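Example 3.2
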Amino acid sequence: MTNLRPTLKKLRILAGEGDFHCYRLLKLGRRGFLFSKYLLTTLSYFKGTGGCATTRTIAFVKGGNQLRYHRHVAEQLESDFGEVQLFTSSRLSVCPASLMLPRLSVLDVLLQFYFLLLTLLTGRRRYLNLYFLAFEAAIVKTVGTGFQAVETLICYNDQPYDVAAILHALHDHDTCRTIVIQHGLVLSEKFYFPSIAREFWAWGELSRTHYCARDQFSRILIKGRYNEDVIIKRDNFIVPGAGKPLRILVAPSYFHDEVKQTLESLGNMLSGEFGVKASVAIKFHPSTKFAGLLKLWCVRCAPWMSEEIEPMEELADKYDVLVTKNSTSAVDFLLRGKPVFFLEPRSDEEFPSISYGFKLEQLSPLLTNFSTDLCNKNASREKFLRLALNV
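Structure, written as tokens:
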């Protein structure tokens, strides 16, 4: 049997995502959820097509959202590193040319399934830890087979245990450079950090607020976001066109209750005493669970709203204002000088803030006096963009 060699450092790396959220779920009796989620991860690596890196630099992505971000920065990465080969944790239909890690062996999968089954039956943390260690031991073998020539690995979230296992295996080679690139606003140290990669490429100084790392050799570097952010940035807010229907985009989190409450408030506001003429659309959060049920509710209770699926950068050009709680999409709107209405803005100047945004209930009355209010908030908007995006 595989020698799992448990160490406290290794378990902190593998189980540490979301401030050890897996242990809290286990304590709350969510064994079935953990069993299903982790078994699917194991099977995704078992389905690997096999393949060895043929370049010195590779990018590793999980899911379509990270792939979209990677495509935005791919040209910049190639300028810095030369050819960058793309690997994924599962076969993405939108990126058939990508490679996957070499396939896990049947024995490795059976061992992981065994520990997951014991976790499901007993609810004991010991067996969950053994699963993490068995997964990591299998990843060490596949990394040794597929990534022998790799000198730099770039990823977009280094906390999930499978990515953490890959990075941990690569760190055995002192010459390997591991980089995680920020792909959203850093709002909490709990669910984004500690970082495991040796370098964290942050958008702006605001990310230092929460940054921390597992390893003393890790460091944060301020790199900005997209090269085009400097070109896109407006010097002032744009006042929505007078007499034209206001184009409103809603960008909620993945919580169903938040979506429903936001749309109910917005619907009452737009049909109430102010009589605002507007077209409203929603961009569902990519992590929304049971999205089909939520969409059925929207069809029944908010038939006046449409759905958007395009990237947020394109939607920020298309719509006049944004309604959100704390979505990173607010950055795309503020960058273009578009007003943002926050569900729960803060009083300080970080994010989300009333200093450069508005409360949702201000939407209707502000339509008659947008120009003055936007001018008053522009200095705070520019300060936030400097801190958040380094532009």
